Amino acid sequence: MKKISKLVLGIAVTSLLIVGVQKGIKYYLQGPPREFNSILISGELENVNKGKEIYKDNTKYAKDYKYKIVTNTEKMLDEKGNVEVGENGKEILVENKFLVITKDTAKEMLKDQVLRTLKNPGSGSIETKLLESIPNIDTDKTIYFGDENKDKKLEINRKDIPLEYGSYSWVGYYPSEQGSLIVTDNETYKSIEDKEQIISLIKFDKGKKDLRNAKDKEEIKQKLSKAQITEINYANVEK
């Protein structure tokens, strides 16, 4: 009888552990709802306009922001500052990409609630919150909003641009795959030779979706598949 009781107890404990693990996995994969009522679509103007046309029946309003991409290549250094060499005997190069906007554009994005930052930097958490202010926005400094590598360098037309570190922040819910965010003055922005592109904020006229729901994101992706959008991001705009 005692053996049966121990067996039943063992099964019960195992069942509770399984349920606990399942709940933990569910929380990790889904977590608390992260609602969004807007999308941010970026790329060439023609393609972005196609995306806006696709969503015209569920658009409360749309707003465009201009940006350019800067790509810098630098040599990878080891801990002693020496250039690292690969197995093929060639120097290892690292490509750094930056998504550059003007300070006026950054101010508009702040007002429009599309810039986000880490809620607890250094904690390892991926939770974010709205970015509410940008120190030095009204100075002549170019501000870097990438990861905490505060020694990051920016070169435009073979000219080194001094960077002021802001915070680890970005446009939309996810950091852009196009590059780390840079905010600069109009003159520096105009000197960038890359073709100007567009990020368009589209606020839904009706309904909210959940960022943790893969079906919601897949639905948007499929809907925009013919528009050749460079990147899709998300925002929750309460205005």
Quaternary state of the chains: single chain
Low-confidence stretches: 1-29
Radius of gyration: 23 Å
Q: How many domain units?
A: 1
Helix percentage: 25-40%
What is the count of β-strands? 15
Instruction: Find the structural class using helix and strand composition.
Output: alpha+beta
Can you tell me the overall shape? globular
InterPro entries: Lipoprotein_22_bac
Protein name: Lipoprotein
Pfam family, one: Lipoprotein_22
Sum up the structure in keywords.
disordered N terminus, alpha+beta, Lipoprotein_22_bac, Lipoprotein, single chain
In brief, what are we looking at here?
InterPro entries: Lipoprotein_22_bac (IPR035253). With 239 residues, the chain is of the alpha+beta class.
